[in-house]
Amino acid sequence: MYRGVEVAENSTKWMPAQGPDDIAPRLVEARRALHSGAAGAAAALFLVLQEEAAGLRLVGEQATALAGLGDCALETGELTDARDHFAEAELLLADEPLPRRVPALRGRATAHLLAGELRYCCYLLEAALDELDVSGQRDPEALLALWTTAIAPYMDMGAHARAARAAELALALVAQVDDPVLVASAHRGVARTLVVEGRFAEAAASLTTAQELCRDLGIRTGLAHCHWTRGYVHAQDGDLVGAERELRTARGMLAAQHAPLFTAQVEVELADVLRRRGRAEEAAGLLTPLLSPSALGAERGAVHAGGAHRLLGMMAENRGDTEAAEEHYCAALSLLERTGAAGDLADLCRLLGDLLRRTGCTDAALNAYRTGLGHRAAPGTTTLGPAPPVPLRRPCG
Question: How confident is the model over 171-175, as a mean pLDDT?
Fold first, then answer.
């Protein structure tokens, strides 16, 4: 029975489905509500449509509605719910060609990425890409979705060459794809890979393209992420004033859209910029509330949770509180080791090793350095000898 759900304030109520042809356009409207920043209202609409499609035995439309529910859950930070919705959508489409299943599969991979499960995210994406290649299903939209999604975990894992290759392949596909949300996402991913090569002007140009797409079509969620990425680019380029401006804009937009996980992640990056600008107290005030599991934690934004502890450790060390610094560094290490974020791990182990060495804990310092090196060397990365041993988990006492 239809319950009468509104897209947003002052909107009119949707009428119940009159038949199969009535659901598809309403799915488009629900997706538009999500892109406008109304994730909660969009989720309510997708739920109604999922129930109606199930009642009419419209498997494709039911799966699309479930994927929509998954995307809404990603936006609101409910990662377990998101994985469940995407998995159910994939199950409904189990007998369909892989390109039809890619939106749900991509969503499930993104949920694992946001949880900090970088390796499993990459496994899902690479397995799908291999299957598309073997089967000869060269679907441009499916390929663009998979390659674009792979950029972020590759970057976080320190696999910069793979990330650059994924970005190159994604760029080659954008002209063949009509979905502006997907195209804008590709340009944001490309911008991040260009930063590694120091190509800041080209990164800015990619972001301008993405922002124009989002602004012209009213895609507020994508526009918020564009501001976030531009803030990241400015921070990497040393433009801290520009970085703070863009990150504050992104933070305000995401908070208004009730996207708490993304807001918390932006706040970690903003805190780093504030610290670098000499405003450590303000940065610490921003970071401390984020350490609760409801904000960031081992299964919810683990990479940024580790980053928050790392920043707090650096600030504690700067004010001479070596005990607090070590505690934060070890907490960060515990979080980051689960993710495989090699670059962050290596820098953290350097910080921890230097701290331990200065305080006379030479053996513990060596263990910290060995842990960092061990995470940089993985099976398949060394020319001679067996795979490197698993690094020690706790380099400090």
Answer: 95
* pLDDT score recorded for residue 20: 67
Which of 170-206 are b and which e, b meaning 16 or more Cβ less than 10 Å from the residue's Cβ?
A: bbebbeebeebbbbbbbbbbbbbbbbbeeebeebeeb
CB 98 within 8 A of CB 135: yes
Q: Do the beta carbons of residue 302 and residue 339 sit within 8 Å?
A: yes
User: Which one-letter DSSP state was computed for residue 174?
Assistant: G
Spatial CB neighbours of 22, under 8 Å, sequence gap ≥ 6: none
User: What are the two backbone dihedrals, phi and then psi, of residue 31, each rounded to the nearest 5 degrees?
Assistant: -65, -40
Q: How confident is the model at residue 376 (pLDDT cuts 50, 70, 90)?
A: low
Tens-digit pLDDT profile for residues 103-136: 999 999 999 999 999 999 999 999 999 999 998 8
Give residue 10's pLDDT: 37
The three-class DSSP label of residue 297 is strand
User: How many angstroms separate the CA atoms of 392 and 367, rounded?
Assistant: 7
Class of residue 149 by CB neighbours under 10 A (exposed 0-12, middle 13-18, buried 19+): buried
Nearest alpha-carbon partner for 264 in 308, 225, 229, 319:
308
Give residue-wise pLDDT tens across range 213-263.
999 999 999 999 999 999 999 999 999 999 999 999 999 999 999 999 999
pLDDT at 378: 52
Cα of first residue to Cα of last residue in the chain, in angstroms, is 60
| 176 DSSP assignment | G
User: What interhelical angle do 322-339 and 302-318 show, nearest 10?
Assistant: 160
3-state secondary structure of 300: strand
What value, to the nearest 5°, has the Cα angle with vertex 10 and ends 9 and 13?
A: 95
User: What is the chain's mean pLDDT, rounded?
Assistant: 87
Residue type, 76: T
Main-chain dihedrals φ then ψ at residue 254, nearest 5 degrees: -70, -40
Distance (Å) of CA 188 to CA 10, 83, 145, 313 = 33, 24, 13, 30
Query: 338 CB contacts (<8 Å, ≥6 apart)?
Result: 116, 117, 298, 302
Q: Which two tokens stand for residue 223?
A: 């526009």
